[in-house]
Amino acid sequence: MIEAVGLTKRYGAKTAVYNLSFQVRPGAVTGFLGPNGSGKSTTMRMILGLDRPTEGRATIGGHEFRDLPNAPRQVGALLDAKAVHGGRSARSHLLSLAQLAGIPAARVDEVLGVVGLQQVASKRSKGFSLGMGQRLGIAAALLGDPQVLLFDEPVNGLDPEGILWVRNLMKMLASEGRTVFVSSHLMSEMALTADHLIVIGRGQLMADMSITDFISANSADFARVRVPDDGPEQREKLTATLTEAGGQVMSEPDGALRITGLRLPRISDLAHEADVRLWELSPHQASLEEAYMRMTQGAVDYRSTADQVAHLQAPPTPGYGPQQAFAPPQGAPEVPQQGWYAPPPPGRNPYTDAPAPAVPAAAPAAPAAPVAPPAPAPAAPAGPSADLTKSDISEDSR
């Protein structure tokens, strides 16, 4: 088991991790989430003894990493897949690690087979792709057959087959009673892999709970309702009926209605009583990504902004190109992101049906001035200098 108690790390005036306490228990895949710069990698480095905490302590099985006897036999980690000497082959790299830890050489061939690098075991690692480097790093983590494993972005650079393999590997390791602690920014993959979540933001603990509890605590489930497109009066009637019954109704950009505060059978009964025909009535539960975005939206340090040099680009041709096809009309109402934002109070609708103001047509371009045809280029002089002799042809070009 991994345990952090009051873990704090400062770099001068910057506090990377502050008073962080959590436990990573065996038998489950524990996901470690947080925005960029939140302190995930620093926390993992302190657990592995690579960084010394300013305050607090991190232990593995009740002992700090530096006090573990033959630590590679007990703890395996992948923090940086590029931490390999490029001149060594995959097998030589793993063999050197095995010899340092007293691991039999036969184990090297076993882990190469587990990660699927047998055919390139004799090739130098500097020629490996990002995905192959990730596989080699995972092989190094599995080398000592440890009971505790830490992975920082293990699926980075892997193809779909490799991602599926890592997912099944994590679950298999946890099912064997091992402690698996994995960091990732792929929410969809984490939702399929992890059983428990630890979320931090700006170095502090934000959540420590199961995925199911995390999604329920940070999202609002709703029902999606759609009425016939040619019946705006039915849409208004249904909105009034559901609002009167205590529901909260929001319009979505595609014309559907988002209903909260009422269960699906109640919505169906109210629509039937109001004589409103429904084309769609479906439940929606927020995804892990939506719940994560809602929780961490205030803890993001790096946000993209408008391009400050956009004015230096050439203006698009009027009526041509994808810039015109996807450019939003001026004055269009702002549409918030769907799925993770909180619904408004009853009686308020953030969307309006007012048409966008007309965009004035571009003034016709002035006719281009006629361009004189270019003067013909002078002919190359004839003579022996224009011909290639045998001595002018190098050995490489023959």
TrEMBL record:
Ranges of Basic and acidic residues composition bias in the record: 389-398
Record-linked Pfam families: ABC_tran
Keyword Cell division in record: no
Signal peptide stretch: none
PANTHER family hit by this protein: ABC TRANSPORTER, ATP-BINDING PROTEIN
Record-stated family: Belongs to the ABC transporter superfamily.
Protein name (Swiss-Prot/TrEMBL): ATP-binding cassette domain-containing protein
Species, as recorded: Streptomyces poriferorum
